[in-house]
Amino acid sequence: MKAVRSNIKIIPFGGVVPILKKIKEFGVPQAIRSTLGVRKKQSRYGYEDVFIAWVLTALCGGTRLNDITKIKKKLNIIPGLKIPSHDTLGRVMKKLATEVVTKRNTHNKSLAYTQLNDNLPLNKMLIKSTKAAGALQENKVYTLSIDATFIPTECRGAVRKKNSEDQVTVSKIGFNPMAGFIDDMPVSISMRDGYSSGHFEFNTFLQECLNQLSEEKIKIGRVISDAAGYNKQAFEDLHKKDIKFVVRFPYQSRMETFKSALISSNNWRKSEIKTANFNWICEVGDIPYKMFDHYSIGYVSPTWRVVAMRIPIVEPNMDTRKVKELNIEKLRKLAAKKKLKDSGKTYVEGKWAVLGNYKYKFIITNDYEKKAEDLIVEYNKRGTTERVISFMKNDFGWRLPPFMNMNENTVFFIAASLANNVFRGMVRVFEKSIPELRLSMRIREFQFVFIDVACALINGIYEFYNTDIAYEKLM
User: Fold this and answer.
1) Which phi and psi angles does 394 have, rounded to 5°?
2) Are the beta carbons of 138 and 131 closer than 8 angstroms?
3) I need a surface site. Which of 165, 310, 317, 383 has the fewest CB within 10 A?
4) d(CA 90, CA 403)
5) Is 217 helix (H, G, I), strand (E, B) or coil?
6) Closest to 46 in 3D by CA, of 59, 37, 58, 55
7) Residues 42-63: tens digit of each pLDDT
8) Cα separation of 274 and 297, whole Å?
9) What secondary structure letter does DSSP report for 307?
10) The model's pTM
11) For 90-129, what is each residue's pLDDT tens digit?
12) Of 43, 370, 13, residue with least CA distance to 221
């Protein structure tokens, strides 16, 4: 047998071809350009070239800036595709950084000032481009989930503060970005230093996010947050906009008025609540709650609804043992399927507030119509947001901030979010005709199923090899 050398160029990431076609067809480059403008005439790459190049790099498995160089060589048959070097990529991202500001953190008295960076132009670009990619739809009502996460890094821009004993808290060297999520997509990011509390500038971030979504006609009907979202002004602003909020109520023993109302309440009813991780046989009830009034200025606070769930603190009997065994078995099965937030780690149930002979969980809301059980289940689904954060860290490079300065890393986080959102949009587009695709799939599986296919450009026509997917029909 004689080997014959062919001069046909074949790329290993052929799935990028129909994706790039859809990106252009949907107007994602125009969305980026209309938000960020154009670079100087002598610039070889526009902003749209840089961000789309990073999106394609992420879809091919890249998480570090220098991965773009390897991808560039493997996509060189695509006409008109502009992929910059990693130096150019980094330089353009740095130039898009905005100013870092320092504000007083009223929730942290010992460390009173916190640095933050809100890159509003890039967040606007993220929403506009996500919508263009088909991942968000106009006038559809969505739930917005707000959460923060810690990113450990010892880069030069990570703040190092000293305590009263002149020691640096090593566990807080890094960044603590706050992000807004719709479904499994980040739609807004505010970068903060590692010493930032979850409460810090919460309402400012929330209102800016809502305003930018509203500009693109993306409607928010509900907002979910953990106790960091327990914010009097945020509650009133959301209520005025007719947006429902569901927030964990941070019960404290010094809340004497609420404690008295809780103890004297007699509207408890038995219930069974099934969540993703637990089955609770419990009692549920509602307690009216006012945060505080300012009678001196004639201000009276609205009365919100606190949904309470309680379980008696008693010695285990047959029924409680059976429920506990069922919960343990459920967690074991979820761990085996890698459905828990951190695989390999024991799932830790959220904190309970202990009062008298019961332990409680509380949620505060302005939704007076939905059943208490439904609100508890809805809040528990907030764990999906934490899993999305985990995916962003591991699949799209959030755990590896590439730059020295905080505001430059904000740009990278938004670029990584755009890659995730375009990926989600493309799955929604193609899953209708490709049964192998699932809306819940992660990027590595998508790469294996859809991206990794040999492809050649012959006489202006793309040829795909050794695949059951009819890529030609997608073109």
Assistant:
1) -90, -35
2) yes
3) 165
4) 8
5) coil
6) 37
7) 899 999 999 999 999 999 999 9
8) 45
9) E
10) 0.89
11) 999 999 999 999 998 776 555 578 999 999 999 999 999 9
12) 370
Which of 392, 447, 426 is CA-nearest to residue 52?
426
Nearest to 411 by CA among 397, 422, 425: 397
* Mean pLDDT across 183-188: 96
Span 339-353, average pLDDT: 56
User: 304: closest CA among 201, 373, 354, 231?
Assistant: 231
Question: Among residues 358, 354, 377, 359, which one has the least CA distance to residue 367?
Answer: 377
d(CA 407, CA 414): 11
Question: So what's the pLDDT on residue 357?
Answer: 87
Report in angstroms the alpha-carbon separations of 139 from 38, 122, 215, 220, 379: 30, 22, 11, 9, 23
- Specify the residue for token string 């029909």: 473
* Beta bridge partners of residue 456, listed in sequence order: 10, 463
What is the separation of C-alpha 150 from the centre of its chain, rounded to a whole number of angstroms?
13
Contact 366, 289 (CB under 8 A): no
- Identify the helix (H) or strand (E) that includes residue 79: none
203: CB partners within 8 A, 6+ apart: 231, 233, 234, 237
CB 280 within 8 A of CB 309: yes
- Three-state DSSP at 26 gives helix
| More confident site: 218 or 40 | 218
Q: Which two tokens stand for residue 146?
A: 């707000």
Which residue in this structure is represented by tokens 């970068």?
A: 191
What is the rounded CA–CA span in Å between residue 175 and residue 165? Answer: 23
**CA 154 – CA 401 distance, rounded (Å):** 10
Is 97 in a helix, a strand, or coil?
coil
Please name the residue ranges forming H helices in 43-119. 47-59, 67-74, 86-95
Helix (H) or strand (E) holding 10: strand 10-11
Domain extents for the chain? 10-98+411-474, 249-374
On whether the CB atoms of residues 35 and 120 are closer than 8 A, the answer is no
- Report how far apart the first and last C-alpha atoms of the chain are (Å, whole number): 37
DSSP-assigned letters across all residues of 378-413: HHHTTHHHHHHHHHHHHHSSTTS--SSSHHHHHHHH
Task: Enter the tokens of residue 248.
Answer: 């964990």
- Distance in angstroms (rounded) separating the CA atoms of residues 156 and 403: 9
Q: What is the rounded CA–CA span in Å between residue 245 and residue 256?
A: 24
Give the DSSP per-residue string, 323-351.
HHHHHHHHHHHHHHTT-SSSTTS---PPP
